[in-house]
Amino acid sequence: MPAANGDGDVDVDAATVPLAEIAAIAVLPEPEPSVNQAVLMPPPVLEPDDFKDLLGQAVGLRLDSVSREFGGNDEMHVTALRDVSLEIGPCEFVSVVGPSGCGKTTLLSLMGGLDRPTSGHVYGAGLPLGELSERDLADYRLQRVSTIFQAFNLIPSMTVEDNVALPLTLAGIELDERRRRARHLLALVGLEHRARTRARLLSGGEQQKVAVARALANRPGLILADEPTGSLDSTAGEGVLNLLADLNRRGATVVLVTHDPEVARRARRVIRMIDGRAIELEGGNPTVRKQEPVDPAPRLHWRDTLKVGVGSAGRRPLRTALTTTGVAIGIAAMSLIVALAGGLQGALSAPALSTSQVHQVAVYPAADARGGAFDNGTLSTLAAQPHVRAAWGQVAMSGTFASGTPVAAGATPPPPSSGALVSLAPVGSSSGTLALSAGRLPRSDVAKEVVLSDSEAAALGYLSRGAIGTQVTYSAASGALQVPGSSRNPVAKPLDLKLVVVGIVSGNAMPAGAPGGMAPYATVRDYWAALARTNGWKGGEYSAITLLADSGLAVEGLRARVEALGFQAQTFGDQFRSFEDLLGKMRVALLGLALVALLLACLGIANTMYTAVLERTKEIGVLKALGARARDVLLIFVAEAAVIGLAGGLVGILVAVGLGRLGNSAVDRLTQSVSSGSFDVFRTDFAVVAAGLVLAIVLSTVSGLLPALRAARQDPVRALRYE
């Protein structure tokens, strides 16, 4: 900044102040002699530099007697480079010119660390490139050098912004920073408006501009341009050449490969290649053997690895969906098997099942018995048998039901209707329930309530639900169900029993489908006892007796003891045991299906990943050319396989949960006649869900590991040439 010295003159640093400002200072009026005044000038206005911080330290190159040969025992032998020695100093702009097939691209690959010499030594940034490990070579490509390919080598399915940011992604740069830098680079090449466009939709000139922007992403010190104007028109080509020249003026080492002499003249030095030899060499600047080290890049973050894997899987939606379906079927089957194994064991030991018909033994009189009924003594004898938790008899009478609803004056009341009155099982002794069509069951064993059959309600003049809440009067005509040829315990002195209708049940629930109703156990027993005292009956109270075993294992033994006493016995567990056998067979079938599905899914994933490696060979070459390590490529493909497994596992778990709920509903309907409780035969818990997801991811990852290893071992030069 200008300042006044002790004499009142203004000192000006001509090296830092523009000429226009110096001229302005020269014409300033002289200050008053008596005043020692300083003249303050505004700071110079610097034009914004859009190319600031685009480049790293310039890289020097040196090749000592380098030869490169291709081909082996079963391939044609080709010598691409023959004893090439040259030096390219830092900040040089060199053109390599020559006809097609003379070794220009091979020379560029050696300089960029994509290939190794057959003999000789290649030095870049003071590093012996031919002696570096693959890891160090990847770091060299990522942090020191950028290549602008003739074929652009963009990834078509990615957006323009993602292509430009790809080197930054490989370097582990945070998402916000790499987006900012990618958009800035696109603005420099005039494509900021195409940032979200897929690369395959760009024209040739636009793709080349994107390739140039990508080459500047990681601040290279060496720019290798392989025929950068070969696919462009003259206007676009001139723009690329001007950009390369400007980058060189700003400190980048630029090596331009071309077969066009006019393009080659833009460089400050020209190297001609003929038949793999470098001739007409001009002396270059000595290369730097040791350069400032570059901080190690943090490398590809796992979030970005997963994102790239998801994007890769999404490029082949049909193939990915089919593979995911295979995983889902296997995981769903395995989850159902585990849920069935745990749920069935729990269902068999459920409290609701312990009082269900599965643990019951129904006892009937012997076929040749004269009385055809049981009395209290028989009930007590059977109840005293080992392993009997509870015992009760079935009291059944024949008689008539009469409506107790008042009728209007002059109206004729409906006539009484014949029907049977049957006792329900004691409350708490059996979990068997009736399939009511309306209403509810009686609240207790002594309630004066009744559940009518639908046919009995209709005979009394009610329309199903209309009978609920009304009062009916029952009058027994016989102390037992009337069957042809039987007149046991006739009623000479009838008694009325007033009952309130609380429910309607199907006639199929009544013995032999007879019309009538069912009343609480104690209510019917007390009514029968009153009739017995009035009419002088001596026995035959129960038409059948039910015994409740204390465990499922004791049912068959109890049945055998009852039959040994001379009675007929029947168990209700046969139906459930048949269902259990069916579930066991289903487990075996599901296990086989799961194993086959998982095997096919694993083969499908492996096939999908192998195909992906073949289809994306050139993409793999691009990734490695941009600085991706073999480990990065491996993780990208493994992540893709893991994503497929995760998606398949989630779908499989959802299917298993849905099928499990449907299965539980079906089992509840099947067991409704033997138990009032619900059975979770398919029991899916968090552990099953977590194990299913982990299994799906592990199997998918293992299946995709071999294809991923193949992708990681791809040679970048061969991969870039793959079509």
Could you outline the blueprint of secondary structure elements for this entry?
Elements: E1 3-4, E2 10-11, H1 19-26, E3 61-70, E4 78-88, E5 93-97, H2 104-111, E6 119-124, E7 127-128, H3 134-143, E8 145-148, H4 160-170, H5 175-188, H6 204-215, E9 222-226, H7 234-249, E10 253-258, H8 261-264, E11 269-274, E12 277-279, H9 302-314, H10 317-348, H11 351-354, E13 360-364, H12 376-383, E14 388-394, E15 396-403, E16 417-423, E17 436-439, E18 449-453, H13 454-459, E19 471-478, E20 496-505, E21 516-519, H14 521-535, E22 544-549, H15 555-564, E23 568-571, H16 573-615, H17 617-625, H18 630-670, H19 686-712, H20 716-721
Parallel strand pairs: 5-10, 5-11, 8-9, 9-10, 16-21, 18-20
Antiparallel strand pairs: 1-2, 3-4, 3-6, 6-7, 11-12, 13-22, 13-23, 14-22, 15-16, 15-19, 17-20, 18-21, 19-20
Task: For the structure shown, list the relevant keywords.
alpha+beta, 6-stranded mixed barrel, rod-shaped, 20 helices, 6-stranded mixed beta sheet, 723 residues, 23 strands
Write a compact overview of the structure shown.
This protein is α+β, with helices and mostly antiparallel strands and 723 residues long. Helix content is 41%, strand content 18%.
Write up this protein.
The chain has 723 residues and is α+β, with helices and mostly antiparallel strands. 41% of the residues lie in helices and 18% in strands. The protein is built from 20 helices and 23 strands. Strands 8-9-10-5-11-12 form a six-stranded mixed beta sheet, sandwiched between helices. Strands 15-16-21-18-20-19 form a six-stranded mixed β-barrel. Strand 1 and strand 2 form a beta hairpin. The longest helix is centred in the C-terminal third of the chain and has 43 residues. The N terminus is likely disordered.
